[in-house]
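Thought: the user wants the 3D structure for the chain below. I'll pass the sequence to the structure tool as-is, report back what it returns, then summarize two notable features.
Action: structure_tool
Action Input:
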Amino acid sequence: MKKAYLAAIAAYLVLYIIPLGVRPLFIPDETRYAEIPREIIATGDWIVPRLNGLRYFEKPVLGYWLDAASILAFGQNAFAVRFPSAVAAGISALMLFLLVRRFSGSNATGLWAGVSFLTCIEVIVIGNISTLDSMLAMFVTLSMVSFFFAHSEARFQAKIGFFILFGIACGLAFLTKGFIGLAIPVTIIVPFLLWERRIKELFGFPWISIAAAVLVVLPWCLMVHFRESDFWHYFFWIEHIKRFMSDSAQHAKPFWYFIPVFLGGALPWTFLLPAAASGLRNDFHRQPLTRFFICWFIFPFIFFSVSKGKLVTYILPCFPALAGLIALGLWRSTNPAKNRLFNMGAALLAVLTAAVAIVLTVSQLVDLPLPRAYSAQETWKWMLGAAGMATWAVFLWFALKAVDLKKKLVWFSAAPLVMLFASHFIMPESVVERKAPGSFMLRQADSIGPDTVLVADKDLAGAACWFYKRNDVYLLGPSGEMSYGLGYDDGGNRLLDINQFKALIQNKDRTNAVVLLARAKRYRAWKASLPEPLLEENNDPHGSFFIQF
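Observation:
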């Protein structure tokens, strides 16, 4: 097991830590979640989150604090702003390992619960970008693990301690992403206790947890209230109630939206779900841990599906439970009949990965009436991608040939590692130019002086603040997520329509340069209404424009 633990730690470092700084920051989310903590550090205001100098009340403050601490430790770079997400994924896997090891009685099952969690595509993607969801999932996982330990504990003092830890975790989840950090545990615990026929526990020890959570959240909640009395109205009503219930909610999606998201996000383990379900079929009604994982996965999934507003990242807190069920189910699939389901899933995935390798190679070498993912100068990228997919297929073949279940799982888990690590390096340059304009913007930095008037659209405003170290950027067109902050007296004059922007450029008393940063589609729509610029540069026909007047 020592070798297995070391191998799992090495895989985590390769997938999550080492490649963090390889890719540039993507717009708009990563630059936004980098800029807010940068402004916290620059202004010294650790209470009121701000973006572009404007009040930004969409989330509480803990995630920004963690990002700011990482920036202070590692500098203002991509590695630093992604580091908390990667660490959060690792801690979630560790807590899942401890839970499954303790209540399954097997080190190996616990280890594979952590490994399957860390190798799910959704967990890897979110753990390698700057966002709050990985940190939220970590605190939710801590709360659920603490609750189950408390639920299963017979010793009074230990039970109290676990319930206190549960409350602290819920409070930290709330400070990361709001009331959702409290709602998720409720959607899990209530049906689980009903299933266990222990519903009376809701009226006992949980009051200790509530007190602990209140003590965690109260200091900042009071400080932000006294600083910004409107925070809680906006945060509760707009960011929670309207997003959950309104038909015009931000990111509105149909009820079934998360089903394909789950199937894709659970890869490569999606192909082993029938084998895992077979292992759980005759045992789940006798195992509290299995029932707990079922409630942990199903009820938050339904909760998020009912919500009108949906994003791919929302169901991340369901994945620790899914990984636990996969580990428990596969380790109970020891007879040949159940291994056939394993082999069928692995064989199908092997065929698909081999097919992807072949299609990628043929599309780059043969002149087909299809767009190529890579340019002629990026041969090494597609070759590395094809090699990664081929390696995946070969390792799956070894998994099929292995007889021992442990060896099968080792090969299956190791199969995607080469491809997953390579994916950080082989992103097509066209995608990078469109979604990560940082290097393009920095090439124009000499044109930006302290008195330059910076104007940007909603996608590039956060990037302009981050790369040019400014918090006074004007917005042209839709205001996006800065609309609330722009509504204050100290921010409203920075939202421009096309006529106001044109008047700004043509102002005869103007002595400083005006620079517009805009996505290509928007700039082309505005261009006919604007005077001839002094400078017009773009990094890609579908990317970003830098225009100086």
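Final Answer: Structure generated. Strands lie at 50-51, 54-55, 453-456, 474-476, 495-496, 514-519, 535-538, 544-548. Residues 435-548 form one domain.
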